[in-house]
């Protein structure tokens, strides 16, 4: 992975090429992670391979001194790999446990290889704290269970404890970064004894800090959800509505689902149904489609 994440390639191309060539993710799954059409991602991969050939970029195992410069891309590869496992973009299952396990194993390897890098520790902590909820994320039929409805007794407390300990060590190094912030957000969820006890104001503040490192519409959308939980659905909806016409986010089914959920909480059922339909038109994975269908039945009484 460090070999493939060559600094001569554009940052996004490094990540995409490694996900395809080393991790074996499909072009469609990589495109979904980058919120671009599959055809666009396929062209990016072709251009990256062409640049390697034309520039005769030498691919060799980097020295220990070269690893830090490639670390960011490697961490992003692992993060995307885990994300595809955590919420699969294709197939009938919501979770691909094999990918989650592989990503965690890789994160452990990187953290061991670079033990003084807090962001490597931050990513490992994030994956552990998130994956600890795996058993509670689906019901007996494989249907999606929202975080607020999950049986917290099914969360893996040993994994949570390990994640929190690693995060504390990373934060103690005094070099904050995006993965440490992501992990801190995950820790806010894992330490709450119930959904009602979740410190959503703290989560919203952490997302606000995360935007300094990752000024992306996806982070802003996640902040909107946290704001909605802390201050009410109307406050979050204002932020999501401002993002609704973003050229990338319109392809992201989760944005439309989040809007629909807030509209439903506000009693604006017709608008909520429209947002759910917009999500369905993007052909999300079966688990998401099933969740949307259930919500639509609740709105229409059948």
Summarize the structure.
By secondary structure, the protein is an all-alpha fold. The protein has helices at residues 11-21, 27-34, 38-54, 67-86, 97-113, 118-131, 157-172, 178-191, 200-213, 217-231, 233-243, 253-265, 269-281, 286-300. The chain has a domain at 210-302: Serine Threonine Protein Phosphatase 5, Tetratricopeptide repeat (Alpha Horseshoe).
H and E string: HHHHHHHHHHHHHH
Indicate the structural class. Answer: mainly alpha
The CATH superfamily of one domain is: Tetratricopeptide repeat domain
Give the strand content.
under 5%
**How does the major sheet shape up?**
none
CATH architecture assignment of one domain = Alpha Horseshoe
Topology:
Blueprint: H1 11-21, H2 27-34, H3 38-54, H4 67-86, H5 97-113, H6 118-131, H7 157-172, H8 178-191, H9 200-213, H10 217-231, H11 233-243, H12 253-265, H13 269-281, H14 286-300
Helix pairs in contact: 1-3, 1-4, 2-3, 4-5, 4-6, 5-6, 6-7, 6-8, 7-8, 8-9, 9-10, 10-11, 11-12, 12-13, 13-14
Description of the molecule:
This protein is an all-alpha fold and 302 residues long. It has a domain of 93 residues: Serine Threonine Protein Phosphatase 5, Tetratricopeptide repeat (Alpha Horseshoe), CATH 1.25.40. The chain is 66% helix and 0% strand. Helix 2 crosses helix 3 and helix 4 packs parallel to helix 6. It starts with 10 loop residues before the first helix and ends with a helix.
